[in-house]
# Entry
Amino acid sequence: MKTDTINIVSGLPRSGTSLMMSMLEAGGLGLLIDGIRTPDEDNPKGYFEFERVRQIEHDQAWLPDAQGKAVKMIAELLRHLPATYSYKVIFMRRSMQEILASQRQMLIRRGEPTDKVSDEVMARLYAGHLQQVQEWIAQRPNVDVLHISYNDLLADPTPQAEAIKQFLGGGLDVERMVNAIDPSLYRQRQ
# Structure
């Protein structure tokens, strides 16, 4: 694995980014996380976040610490990555119905309203957002991307873990990555 590249796990909320971070950690890749957001019922194994990522538009001083590691970043923030680094982005994809169902469950658990925006409108917004992100990535020679389907990952993890290992330049333990997957946490199956 290249030690100067920043490895990013990205995707829409509830698309499997925390699972991917746990797999990378199990496989032997260092993570840039702070532990501020603790595990809960929605993510019992943790969120694997680094809070300063949310401020990337104004705070990029942490980026050198991310070199050679993996950091989680929602898709919306990718456009703020400076051109001064090379990035390997593992972009998580998941059935839109499952993403929306998972978000709804999270809102219910938190006691928040679930009817502010319909699923149809959210699906349309997310699809447009994903298109914009893909167009941005396509225009960046310093960004390589590997799309991983959460659904395929849970159905047949070994080929996906092998692809991730190759994408990141080798050195990951595929068996440990696969063993990090807890199928019981696939709760919004469609």
